């Protein structure tokens, strides 16, 4: 571009300074006089001459353009900027003319004043009058000097009054300095305008180049995937511990990560044609526009009564300009930024939270353990297993609406049932409660905070997870680690987990420390590695844990010996290889999972319509259902409608709370009148001036946990009874 003509770019020769020489009948040379030289060969002498002539003409044009650019700088100035600059220069010229006119008037009246004073000096006047006239003459001279200084021009030398008596002549003051100023401002104004325009052009070029680079990079990746076959997932969960070590994993996780580990985000870039719009007998397409959502829902309910579904409609090939959206999100809280469904997967955050129960059998085994330390090993494996579904799941779940719920009743098949409810919208928070007839209860309240940093996205779940075993009374708590999504703008999206988890048994004091090792390009270690130690209240380690959060976890019993100094010595884990026990291994993904958002077998069933669920259940959310059925444009419109409805509901509640607060303050003066003010509005938890949102969850209530002393939403009961009676009269209308 013209803005780069004054710079050198590696591998190029500037024609304006190039040397073009003919070597023989077919060869010629282009050189910049330095290290860059092109040796070119034409097919014939005529062809060579055509090239040389064209290059000479181009060189002449480049030289002319460079000179014109240096002289005027108008080439890169837009028409609007030219007009603005010309108006400014016109105003400056007008002001200079005004100064010139003032200069003429000062010279004219100053000369007349000097003449009058000289005539007064020639008259015979009393001595006192002569002194007064001299004083006035001096002041007139001072006025002339000051005027000259204002115009920034000194009197001519022949009229100088330095060292002489004031002369009756006032020098002719020239406005040349003001004209010089105008010309200087005009010259520099053009240069500044040119520099500003070049900066604007360069910024636009950089944005376009980055966007084009991302598109080309993704195109190459899709072409590569289309020419290769992805390795099939290993099936089965059995086998001996020694056969499940997977010794080749360390090699694959380094050089071959690009081919075997990471995949594009399915919500952003189009898949190859072979992945789109295929339907089988078990798929519910729902794409016919003449069928209402209610009819589709009833039809799907009938199909899912018999067996759990194993397929969902394949993800359509919809493209999206990712950079145009994400470039305005840097440094912001992602939950407050409206996103199109193109970034989503057809599940809500409540359903994603329920996926933690995919390996519920680990808690079933833990409930049967007699040793609290062995039980802690299975709880740790359960903690790690909740991350296994995230390895390929780079899509974003739907943000639940306030009051939205999700139930998962697997009491007959697996012995547990689960309930989630969105208890807060800003910050977004979800409460989860699961009970099992196999002897355990799991509950948690998770607040999701996320920050987009340009190159990566950090997701920080806040909140404590509780697991209580009924027979032993062991109460375990832990928190989640940070999830990071890398290569947001360019390259393959991939997910990593990093941080530490401390699992504490509050009854016995046992503790487990899990370390999620962040991925490093410079490490030869196994990718996504997790290590852990299970220790008693005294800090003595009894079990060592080793594995990866995307594949499996092993347990080693630590044999404690005695050192030379009498202290207890801890051996390395490989010394207890015979004691290795496979705690958990990831289930293989379903066939064609890459076409179905990389959902696991459990995830494929979560959004299947079911009879008898609450009207606030995520399965009934219309935008999510439309997106699952491939109708993304309609889903985006429906998503906007639901979000606007939620905003209006919040404003209505805040207005009602404000009125109730005022009534409560007035009624505090009259103790005989019961106050209708919400109790929270009058407590120190809600200071004056704080907007009070009087929303209260339907199935959960906020209490202080006696173990952690934290305020959290705890299940208060009533949901399953309401489902049995099919009495949903208390449920709000959120859809």
UniProtKB/TrEMBL annotation:
Region Disordered: start-end pairs: 608-665
Gene3D superfamilies in the record: 2.40.160.120, Pleckstrin-homology domain (PH domain)/Phosphotyrosine-binding domain (PTB) (2.30.29.30)
Source organism superkingdom: Eukaryota
Biased amino acid composition, Basic and acidic residues: 617-665
Listed GO biological process terms: lipid transport
Coiled-coil annotated residue ranges, if any: 196-223
Any one Pfam family match given in the protein's UniProt record, by short name: Oxysterol_BP
Domain PH: 1-60
Protein's UniProt keywords contain Phosphoprotein: yes
GO cellular component: cytosol; perinuclear endoplasmic reticulum; plasma membrane
A GO MF term: sterol binding
Compartments, record wording: Membrane
Membrane topology of this protein: Peripheral membrane protein
Keywords: Coiled coil, Lipid transport, Lipid-binding, Membrane, Phosphoprotein, Transport
Family classification: Belongs to the OSBP family.
Protein name: Oxysterol-binding protein
Source organism: Prunella himalayana
Lineage: Eukaryota, Metazoa, Chordata, Craniata, Vertebrata
């Amino acid at each position: 571009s013209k803005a780069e003509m004054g710079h050198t770019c590696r591998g190029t020769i500037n024609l304006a300074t190039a040397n073009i020489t003919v070597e023989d009948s077919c060869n010629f040379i282009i050189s910049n006089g330095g290290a860059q030289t092109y040796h070119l060969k034409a097919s014939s002498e005529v062809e060579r001459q055509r090239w040389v002539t064209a290059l000479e003409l181009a060189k002449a044009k480049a030289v002319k353009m460079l000179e014109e650019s240096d002289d005027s700088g108008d080439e890169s100035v837009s028409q609007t900027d030219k007009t603005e600059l010309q108006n400014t220069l016109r105003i400056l010229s007008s002001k200079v003319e005004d100064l010139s006119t003032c200069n003429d008037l000062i010279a004219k009246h100053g000369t007349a004043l000097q003449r009058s004073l000289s005539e007064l000096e020639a008259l015979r006047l009393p001595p006192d009058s002569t002194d007064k006239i001299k004083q006035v003459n001096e002041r007139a001279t001072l006025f002339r000097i000051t005027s000259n200084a204002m115009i920034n021009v000194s009197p001519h030398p022949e009229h100088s009054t330095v060292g002489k008596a004031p002369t009756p002549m006032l020098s002719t003051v020239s406005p040349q300095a003001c004209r010089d100023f105008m010309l200087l401002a005009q010259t520099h104004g053009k240069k500044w305008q040119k520099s500003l325009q070049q900066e604007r052009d360069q910024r636009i070029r950089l944005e376009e180049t980055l966007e084009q680079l991302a598109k080309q990079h993704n195109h190459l990746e899709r072409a590569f995937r289309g020419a290769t076959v992805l390795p099939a997932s290993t099936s089965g969960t059995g086998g001996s511990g020694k056969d499940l070590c997977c010794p080749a994993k360390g090699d694959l996780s380094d050089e071959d990560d690009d081919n075997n580990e990471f995949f594009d985000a399915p919500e952003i870039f189009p898949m190859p044609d072979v992945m789109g719009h295929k339907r089988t007998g078990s798929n519910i397409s729902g794409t016919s526009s003449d069928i209402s959502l209610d009819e589709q829902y009833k039809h799907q309910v009938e199909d899912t009564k018999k067996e759990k579904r194993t397929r969902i409609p394949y993800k359509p090939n919809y493209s999206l300009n990712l950079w145009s959206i994400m470039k305005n999100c840097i440094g912001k809280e992602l939950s407050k930024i409206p996103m199109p469904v193109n970034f989503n997967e057809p599940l809500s955050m409540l359903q994603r939270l329920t996926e933690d129960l995919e390996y519920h059998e680990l808690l079933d085994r833990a409930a049967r353990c007699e040793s609290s330390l062995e039980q802690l090993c299975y709880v740790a494996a359960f903690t790690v297993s909740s991350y296994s579904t995230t390895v390929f799941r780079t899509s974003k779940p739907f943000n639940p609406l306030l009051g939205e719920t999700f139930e998962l009743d697997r009491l007959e098949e697996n012995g547990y049932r689960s309930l989630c409810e969105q208890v807060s919208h800003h910050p977004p928070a979800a409460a989860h409660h699961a009970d099992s007839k196999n002897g355990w209860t799991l509950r948690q309240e998770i607040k999701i905070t996320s920050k987009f940093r340009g190159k990566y996205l950090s997701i920080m779940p806040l909140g404590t997870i509780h697991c209580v075993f009924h027979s032993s009374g062991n109460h375990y708590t832990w928190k989640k680690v940070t999830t990071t999504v890398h290569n947001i703008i360019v390259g393959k999206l991939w997910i990593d987990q990093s941080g530490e988890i401390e699992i504490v048994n509050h009854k016995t004091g046992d503790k487990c420390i899990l370390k999620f090792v962040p991925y490093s390009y410079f490490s030869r270690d196994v990718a996504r590695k997790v290590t852990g130690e299970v220790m008693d209240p005294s800090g003595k380690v009894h079990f060592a844990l080793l594995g990866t959060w995307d594949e499996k976890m092993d347990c080693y019993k630590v044999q404690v010996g005695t050192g030379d100094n009498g202290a207890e010595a801890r051996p390395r884990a490989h010394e207890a290889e015979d004691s290795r026990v496979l705690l958990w291994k990831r289930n293989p993904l379903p066939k064609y999972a890459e076409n179905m958002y990389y959902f696991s077998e459990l995830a494929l069933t979560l959004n299947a319509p079911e009879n008898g669920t609450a009207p606030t259940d995520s399965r009934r959310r219309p935008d999510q259902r439309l997106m699952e059925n491939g109708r993304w444009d309609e889903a985006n419109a429906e998503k906007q409608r639901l979000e606007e409805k939620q905003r209006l509901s919040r404003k209505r509640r805040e207005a009602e709370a404000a009125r109730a607060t005022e009534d409560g303050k007035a009624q505090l003066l009259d103790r005989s009148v019961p106050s209708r003010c919400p109790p929270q509005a009058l407590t120190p938890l809600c200071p004056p001036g704080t907007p009070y949102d009087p929303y209260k969850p339907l199935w959960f209530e906020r209490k202080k946990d006696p173990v952690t002393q934290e305020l959290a939403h705890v299940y208060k009961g009533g949901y399953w009874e309401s489902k049995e009676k099919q009495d949903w009269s208390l449920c709000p209308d959120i859809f």
